[in-house]
Design a protein that fits this description.
By secondary structure, the protein is of the alpha+beta class. Helices cover about 50% and strands about 10% of the residues.
């Protein structure tokens, strides 16, 4: 199997300048580099740079995907973007970690498992996972709990350990959170069982009225600083700072609604609940398959009954198809004869069908390609008025 490594970096808060792009180009001559992104695929060799250092210096998000099962997601946020003490409670070795610089906090989710199949593609993950960054800045810590839960799946947490604070809304994850669970390979039954204890997410307090109230409380000096950034042509920087401050103000209303410590469950209990959820899911899936099978059977019977109401027309169509002498027409003739055979059994007209089939086969005895198809499908008369169908 050929090697596949996919690297993608994204700068969302500010674009890269020319000197930064040049520094990145020195690391890779083949990478696709723009003022906001760096993307490269390696089918042999390795990337010369350090993803961690690039995140510290240039980028806000990073995706790494390989064909041997390794997957990494890094997100960089302002130091004020996430409560570091709260984040620390979700950290699991080799699964979820973080580190800080003077201005930023960088979170990394890991997966190091054998792939489920041979198909590997890193493209598309960035767009699906990037919204996690804004969710974390707003105080939505469901992505952190998913990182901890991935540690349970990977066997990096002992059964006697208890879960960290349960964020609200895990029973209704966002699209980005669902993508994260898929990206790191969280067992869906473990996720469903864990989410049972999650309270409903509170509504976001960001209506125009609440925004206006928040703006009215901005100190005059700070508001002037934002205006100065706008006059200097730094609108993106001004917007980022304002959004950051507003996100911090919202965080308390979102991140405080968690399961209290005495309600936390052990990993062993979560595994037990996951097994129950797996059994229930399989039973639901079984019943769903049975309903779908019964529905298809009913639809088939209605179709065959309608077919039996005008047998002459359909026998004529079989003959017309046989006369076309093409492989596709022979296939359609065979399929229609299979249907006519089932319709005959359904309407107690088996003897009539066998007689017509014998006449048809005699008429087209020299059409070996057609007869081979019929024989393979079991459309062959037998003594006693029955056929192999």
């Amino acid at each position: 199997m050929s090697e596949y490594q996919y690297y993608e970096f994204l700068a969302s808060d500010r674009p890269l300048d020319r000197s930064e792009i040049a520094a990145l180009r020195a690391l890779s001559s083949r990478a696709e580099i723009t003022p906001t992104s760096f993307t490269n695929v390696y089918n042999f060799g390795d990337f010369k740079g350090s993803p961690a250092k690039l995140m510290e210096k240039y980028f806000d998000a990073h995706i790494y995907v390989t064909n041997w099962g390794t997957r990494h997601l890094m997100l960089r946020l302002p130091r004020s973007g996430v409560d570091e003490d709260a984040l620390a409670s979700y950290v699991v070795d080799e699964t979820l970690d973080f580190w800080t610089t003077n201005e930023h906090l960088i979170i990394q989710w890991h997966r190091n498992e054998e792939p489920d199949d041979d198909w590997v593609d890193g493209e598309g993950w960035m767009a699906r996972l990037l919204p996690l960054r804004e969710e974390l800045k707003r105080g939505d810590y469901r992505a952190l709990y998913l990182g901890w839960l991935n540690g349970v799946c990977a066997g990096n947490i002992t059964d006697d350990e208890t879960e960290p604070p349960m964020p609200a809304g895990l029973r209704s994850p966002t699209g980005a959170q669902q993508a994260l669970a898929e990206f790191v390979g969280i067992d869906k039954d473990l996720l469903a069982a864990s989410a049972l204890a999650s309270p409903s997410a509170p509504a976001r307090a960001d209506s125009e009225h609440e925004m206006a109230q928040w703006v009215s409380g901005i100190p005059t000096d700070e508001a002037k600083r934002f205006l100065l950034l706008l006059l200097q042509g730094k609108a993106q920087q001004a917007e980022a700072q304002i959004q950051r401050k507003y996100a911090v103000s919202l965080r308390s209303s979102l991140s405080t609604q968690t399961v209290s410590a005495h309600e936390s469950r052990s990993v062993a209990k979560l595994r037990e609940l996951a097994e129950q959820a797996r059994t229930e899911r399989r039973e639901r899936e079984k019943k769903k398959r049975e309903r779908e099978l019964a529905q298809r059977r009913q639809e088939r019977e209605r179709y065959l009954a309608a077919l039996a109401e005008d047998l002459e027309q359909h026998w004529k169509k079989v003959s017309d198809l046989a006369e076309q002498k093409t492989p596709s027409a022979y296939d359609r003739a065979r399929d229609l004869l299979v249907d006519l055979s089932e319709a005959a059994s359904l309407t107690q007209r088996r003897a009539e069908f066998v007689k017509r089939l014998s006449q048809f086969r005699a008429t087209y005895a020299r059409r070996s390609a057609l007869l081979q198809r019929l024989n393979k499908a079991g459309i062959t008369p037998k003594p006693g008025g029955e056929n192999a169908m």
